[in-house]
Amino acid sequence: MGKLGDLANKAKEMAKGHPDQADKGVERAEKLVDERTGNKYDAQTDKAADAARRSYGGGRQDQ
């Protein structure tokens, strides 16, 4: 696997070990994209954030 794939696998493993911190990072990234795009792609960023959370077993408690 290439360097990018290895880096992605390491990030996923780290997120699995620290889901609360990973959730904060996903939330910040989602908020940043929404702010920069004027919430134009809000539904897509929600889906992407949910998929990212599922990949490491995280999730927001407020749902």
From TrEMBL:
Residues 1-63 are annotated as: Disordered. Pfam families: MT0933_antitox. Residues 9-53 have a biased composition (Basic and acidic residues). InterPro entries: Antitoxin_Rv0909/MT0933. It comes from the Bacteria. This is Antitoxin. It comes from Streptomyces pyxinae. The lineage of its organism: Bacteria, Bacillati, Actinomycetota, Actinomycetes, Kitasatosporales.
